[in-house]
Amino acid sequence: MEPLQCGTSPIVGFRFSLHPMTSDFIKVIKGALNDTDTSNVWMHTDDVSTVIRGKQIHVFNVAKALALHTAKTGEHVALSGTFSIGCPGDSTGDVFLEKDDVLLNTDSTKQYISSQFALYPMNNPDYMAVIYREVDRAKQLGLFNDSMHYASGIHGDIHEVFAFYEEAFTNACSDEHRHLVMTVSMSINSPSHGGA
Amino acid sequence: MEPLQCGTSPIVGFRFSLHPMTSDFIKVIKGALNDTDTSNVWMHTDDVSTVIRGKQIHVFNVAKALALHTAKTGEHVALSGTFSIGCPGDSTGDVFLEKDDVLLNTDSTKQYISSQFALYPMNNPDYMAVIYREVDRAKQLGLFNDSMHYASGIHGDIHEVFAFYEEAFTNACSDEHRHLVMTVSMSINSPSHGGA
To answer: Which residues of chain B lie closer than 8 angstroms to A180, CB-CB?
Structure first.
């Protein structure tokens, strides 16, 4: 049996909600979906959230593109969700692992975002060390915003922030501890951000 | 040394974001904060989220009251957040554990909500059994809505849903495995809910 390689072989999922703080929220969400190429991920929306599943690179690529396209409306938008890999109860949708590695969303428009994240490596006695290591890495990258209860603040340009999250997700997963969860909550175009 | 009793002795926290899908979002959030008695919890708001900390009963009571008061505006509102207890990095704010057990928010107005939750008992080899047990309990209570990747759907009247979440949080924590995380995502007054 080949070793399971986190972030390459197993399916990654992101269950999220996109919240435009405007009465036109449906238009903003539909517009972002329209502007994002989601053909490399499996996607399902219900009355509370949306889930996308597939190769890690495509899941993060689609998540970033959705955030970026909603940001372009200029509306205050929040994106919160949970990245997961290796859940023991996981099953269907693996067909999307056969997609190639060509990213379909490549818009590199700059956009400031402020966010918070938490890592939950499941069934791993050393999980706090894993978390502290990634927080230290954010500090070294200049993306660390603030310490706080239950999360860490990460901010900067959307492309750097998403690159950090994808790498943190890769780093926090291991062959021995395959089930990893990462929650993220992002705020875009917030009136609190001023000129940031 | 006395045993640590989950849900009674240690401090519970809830880091959340409230997202009214209206251009008047600031007014809706400020109104809900104004109508909710938060004096039994420590509270701090930053540019992405708000955290409340204190005794478990007060943290859940304040969370429910905030959701209920925003619901009363009739606007489509989303509430997403993470309940935590026993985080090894946890520290300040314990003064609020000396509050008595009298609930300060007792509005029992009925309100349908649809939600999703996930339990993450940290460093617990039997964590999947803990999760399945609580999902089964939701089914028995008639609150279970749907199975899905990475979460479970819970819906019904806001008071029953919050009672379920508080009990699930209590049940999933144990003296042996003290660090517990529970994510919840709620949708209120959604156009998707129709007459539900």
So the answer is: none
Query: Tens of pLDDT along B113-144?
Result: 999 999 999 999 999 999 999 999 999 999 99
For residue B182, give the H/E element and its range: strand B180-188
Q: How far from chain centre, in Å, is Cα B28?
A: 19
- A141 at interface of B, judged by CB pairs closer than 8 A: no
Q: Tell me: ipTM over 0.85.
A: yes
- Contact A150/B80, CB-based, under 8 Å? no
- In whole angstroms, give the CA distance from residue A125 to residue B123: 5
pLDDT tens for B50-101 read: 999 999 999 999 999 999 999 999 999 999 999 999 988 776 667 788 899 9
Q: What is the gyration radius of the CA atoms in chain B, in angstroms?
A: 16
B38 labeled binding residue: no
Residue A15 with chain B: CB contacts under 8 Å: 116, 148-151
Chain B residue numbers with beta carbons less than 8 Å from the beta carbon of A87 are: 149-150
Give the residue from A27, A42, A47 with the most B CB atoms within 10 Å of its CB, the best one to mutate. A47
Nearest residue to B196 (alpha-carbon basis) of B90, B115, B136, B126: B115
Q: What's the pTM?
A: 0.93
- Structure token pair of residue B182: 């529970």
Task: Give the sign of the dihedral formed by CA B186, CA B189, CA B192, CA B196.
Answer: positive
β-partners of residue B44 are: B51
Instruction: Answer whether A48 sits within 8 Å of B125, measured CB to CB.
Output: no
Domain boundaries defined on chain A: 11-85+109-190
- How far away is chain A from the Cα of B20, in angstroms, using its nearest Cα? 6
For the domain made up of A11-85+109-190, give the CATH fold.
Alpha-Beta Plaits (3.30.70)
